[in-house]
Design brief:
Length: 229
């Protein structure tokens, strides 16, 4: 028996990745309240048998399962009705390739691929070609402008990221301006240390003589500290 467990990008996922999963589960759970089906986030796994006879274990980002009694331990052994994957740079090839093929072989009715970069959802429906072989066909692409529930709240995260970038750029600009001012005032050498202990806004000035090479007070760490704030 061949059990092939592939876990990809389980740690360090972007907050937006988790937010999309949470949004989807919350929206669908209400719709399934009086049904025999359950929606799960990325904390359950499925074991499938491939066309080659191998056993593969996967963890979808989200799934809807109507046969929750068919399991061994914490692993479902029957295919869910629906799966969703949220793309990331490290998983996109896997989600569009190997996982897509595996879900097709299990004849999972519907497969959603969420593209965070372009804020869109690709909805694939399962159907059968002229030979009776199951295939996924792109049924619809839903964009952020369609008020898709899975993208709810991502604008706030984008805004916070933009503010953080602006703050970092401003801090860099402040340092450059400080260096320019020191240069204009005749200071020839400056050593900048970043300290979490020193109070923000204070300056600790050190003076030294000689060249900044081996043997100088600066290189030997014997500079005088006047403690000027």
């Amino acid at each position: 028996m061949d059990i092939n467990l592939q876990i990809t990008d389980m740690a360090g996922a972007r907050p937006e990745h988790s937010a999309v999963i949470v949004n989807f589960v919350a929206a669908v759970r209400r719709q399934l309240k009086n049904s025999m089906c359950y929606v799960f986030s990325d904390n359950v796994q499925y074991r499938f048998k491939t066309e080659d006879g191998d056993n593969k274990t996967v963890v979808p980002d989200a799934s809807i399962n109507c046969r929750v009694r068919s399991r061994r331990g914490n692993t479902f052994i029957d295919a869910p009705r629906f799966v969703m994957e949220v793309l990331s740079p490290s998983t996109e090839k896997y989600d569009r390739g190997e996982k897509n093929e595996l879900y097709r072989q299990q004849e999972i009715d519907e497969y959603w691929i969420v593209d965070l970069r372009d804020k869109k959802v690709e909805i694939y429906d399962l159907d059968y070609d002229e030979t009776g072989k199951p295939q996924y066909y792109l049924w619809k692409i839903v964009t952020e402008e369609s008020d898709m529930a899975v993208f709810s709240g991502l604008e706030d995260m984008d805004e916070l990221e933009a503010k953080k970038r602006d703050q970092q750029e401003q801090e860099i600009e402040n340092i450059i301006n400080m260096l320019d001012d020191k240069t204009l005032s005749g200071v020839s050498r400056i050593k900048v240390n970043v300290s979490e202990e020193q109070q923000e806004g204070t300056v600790n000035t050190q003076y030294h003589h000689g060249r900044c090479d081996v043997g100088s007070p600066w290189a030997k760490g014997t500079t005088r500290n006047f403690g000027c704030d």
